[in-house]
Amino acid sequence: MEYQTILLVEDNPDDQVLTRRALHKNNLPNPLIVVNDGIEAIEYLSAIGKAGHSAHPPALILLDLQLPRMNGMEFLRHLRRQGPFPLIPVVVLTSSNEFSDLHECYRIGANSYVRKPVDYETFLATVHHLGLYWLLINHPPPLHP
Amino acid sequence: MVFLVLWLVDPVQALEQYTAQVIPAPSSAVALVLVGLGTLLLEQPFTVLRRGTLLLGAVTLIAMGGSVIAAELIRPGLHLPLDSFFVAATSSANVSQLPATAFNVAVFGLVLLLCAFGASWQRMLGQVFALLIVLNSVRDLALSGASLFWMHNDSPGGAPAMSLFFAAVTISLLRCFPPPQLLAGIRSTGSRLPAVWLLIFPAVIIPIVIELISRWEARVHAFGAGFETLLLIGLNIGLIWWFAESLADSEQLRMRADRARIESEQRLKLITDQMPAILWSTDLQLRITAIHGSVLNPLSIDPLPYLGRDVGAIVGDDESGRIAVRAHREAINGTSARYERNVGKRSFDVRVEPLRDLGNRIVGVVSLALDITERREMETAIQELNSILEQRVAERTRQLEAVNEELEAFCYSVSHDLRAPLRSIDGFSQALLEDYADHLDDEGRTHLQRVRNASQRMARLIDDLLALSRVTRSSLERRSVNLSTLAQSILDDLHRTEPQRQVHLTIQPDLWADVDGRLMTVALTNLLENAWKFTARQPLALISLTRTYADEGAIYHLSDNGAGFAMSSAQRLFQPFQRLHHERDFPGTGIGLATVKRVIARHGGQIWAVGAPDEGATFSFTLLPSVGRNTHLFVDHVEDIHGAESSSADR
Hints:
The structure holds 2 protein chains of 2 kinds.
Chain A: E1 6-9, H1 13-25, E2 32-35, H2 38-49, E3 60-63, H3 72-82, E4 90-94, H4 99-107, E5 112-115, H5 120-137
Parallel strand pairs in A: 1-2, 1-3, 3-4, 4-5
Chain B: H1 2-9, H2 19-22, H3 26-43, H4 48-74, H5 99-117, H6 120-149, H7 160-176, H8 193-220, H9 227-274, E1 277-283, E2 288-292, H10 311-315, H11 319-332, E3 337-343, E4 346-356, E5 362-371, H12 373-435, H13 442-473, E6 478-482, H14 483-497, E7 503-507, E8 512-516, H15 517-534, E9 541-550, E10 553-560, E11 573-574, H16 592-602, E12 607-611, E13 617-621, H17 630-642
Parallel strand pairs in B: 7-9
Antiparallel strand pairs in B: 1-2, 1-5, 3-4, 4-5, 6-8, 9-10, 10-13, 12-13
C-alpha cells in the first residue's frame, strides 16, 4: 500500500527536522514533503495537478503561518480559491495564539489550528494525535469533485 | 331729555312770554338727546348695534338741522312743522328750532359721521367742524349775553342754553374722542366720561337759573336795574373759576402723565444707549418716522437722512433687502417678523413688530436690530476651535493607531519568533537525551534537563507577557456577566487538572457585573489559579468569592486559606516579575497579578490585598470608577491600613 504524503510548509530548518523526527518517533511512515514557503507549496501542488503526473496530491498539509515570500494565510486563501486541490485538509501549525490569527485562519478555511508547544514531548504527542486523526480516522475529500 | 320733559310739562305760565328764548323747541330737545347719545356711543367700543344707532342718530341730526336751514334759506321766517312730530298740541306758534341751533345740529351730525366712520383725514375734518360748532356757539353766547345786557329779547343767534350746551358737548367730544393729530394737546388725560357730564350740567342748569332769577327780579324789582348784569357777571366769574379749577386738575393730571412719559423715555433712552442695537419705526407706507440707537455712532451712520425714507430704498433690492422688506410688510399685516442682516462687518438680529395706536389700529411698524456680531464671531471662533480640536484628535488617533499597530506587530513577532528558538532548544535537547543517552553520564543528562526546563519556563514567560499586553491592547466591551458561574467554571477546570485536591468552594451566587467578559475571564483565572496554587499544601483548601457594598459601590473579595504573604512586601504584589515565594515552592512567572491589576484598572476599578504568612490572603477589587469625593478618602484609607493598594505579584 502506498502511504499518503504529508506536505509540510515550514521555513525554519530546525522545525523541519523536529517535525520529521516527531513523525518518525510516532511511527508514521508517510512520506513528508517539505517546502519553505507558500510559493513553493503552490508550485509543488501545481506540478502534481498537471495532467500525466504520477504522484498523488498530499493527504494533509501542515502549514506554518510566518513564512517568507508568501505567508501561510496567503497560501491558504490561494489554495481554497484557485488551487489545483482546493479541498485538501490544512492543519495550521504555528507558534501564534493570537485571537486574530485563530479567527482569520478558520474564516479562510483551515481545518484545524494547532499551537506548537515548546515542550518537545508535548509536541510528540500532538503530532501523534494529528497523524492518527487526519491520516487514519478522518475521511479525506474526493480528489476530483 | 330734560328740555323735552320741561317742554311737555311747561308748568310756569308766567314764563310763557320767554319760552322762545329759554326753553328750546321740542325738535331741538330731541336733537340734544341725539347729540348726547351720539357722543356717548362714540366713546364706547363699537358693536354692530352701536354703530347702527350712531349712524341713524347722525343722519337724523343732519336731516333735522339741514331741513330747518334749507327752509330758512328758501323763505326766511318759515317754520317747518317739524316740532309737531314730537308735541302734537303746540301751544305757541313761534316755537321752533332756531337757524343757529339747526346749523349746530346738522354740523354735529356730520362730525359724528366723520369721526365714527371716517379715515384719518376725515376724522380731522370732523374735528375742524367741531371747532366750528364751538366758535358758532361762543358767538351766539356772546350775542345773547349782549342782548341780555341791553334787555333785548330778540337775539339773532340761537338760544343761549342751546349755544352753551353745544359748546360744552362739542368740547367734551373733542376732549374725549382721541383725534389722530389735531388738538392732541387738549385731550383729557383723566377719566373721560364724567367730563362730559360735568360740562353738560352747567350748560343745562345755569341758563335756566339765570332766566328764573331775572324773571323773578322783573316781577319783584328787589335789586334794581343793574341786578341782571351783576348776576351774569357773578355767574360768569363762577363759571370761569370752575373751568379754571377743572383745567388745573386736568393740567395736573397731564403733568403727572408727562413726568411718567419722560421717565419712561429716559429709561428707554438708557436701554437704547446701552444696548448694541438700532431702533426705528415707520408709518404704514414703510417710511422711517424715527431712528436711534447706540450702534449708529460706531458705524458712523447719521440717522437724520434716513427719516422719511422708504425702508425698501434703504435696504436695497438684493436678497437680504427683500427679506427685510417682507418682514416689515408682515408687521404691517399684524404679524411680528424676524430676520438677520449684515451691515458692513456687523451682524444684526432684527425683530419687526406692528405699531398700534390707542384704538389698536396698526399705524406702522417698530423694529429693533440687535447687534449680534460678537456672538456670531464667538460662534465662528468656537466652530474653528472645534474643527482644530477635531483635527488634533484625529491626528492623535492616527498616531495612536500607528503605535498600536506597531505594538501589535511587535507582540505578534514576540509570540511567534521568540518561541521558535525555544522549541529548537527543547526539541534538540530531548533528541540528545533520546539518541545519545549512552554517551552522557547522569550529570550531562541533568544539564540537558535543565536546558529543557529553562526553555519551557521561558515559553511560559513569553505567554504571560503576551497575555498582559493583550489586556491593554484589546478594547473594553462591558456586558452583564455572571462572575459566580465564571469563577465556578474556572475552578472546575482547575479541579480536573488535580482531581485529588480537597478544595471547599464558597461562591456567592449571581454576582452579576457589567464587565468585559474576556478580560474578566483572564483576571479571575489568574486570581483563582493563584488561590488554587497557594492552597496546595492545605489538607482542606478554602476558596471563597463574595461581594459586599460600600460607599463607592460593589466590592468583590476572593479569599483563600493558603500560604498568604507578609503585608510588608504587599507593595510588590501587583508589579510584574515580582515574586514573594520561591519558584520551587510555588511555580509562576510573576506576571499574573500584574495582569489582574491591569484588567481591573481597565474597568476603572481598584484592587488591593490583605494577608499574612500562612494565614491566607484576600484580594478585593471594584469594577467601576469610584464617583464623588469619597474616592480619595477610601483609597487613602485602604493604603493606610493595608499598604497594598498598588502592588503585587504571584507572591
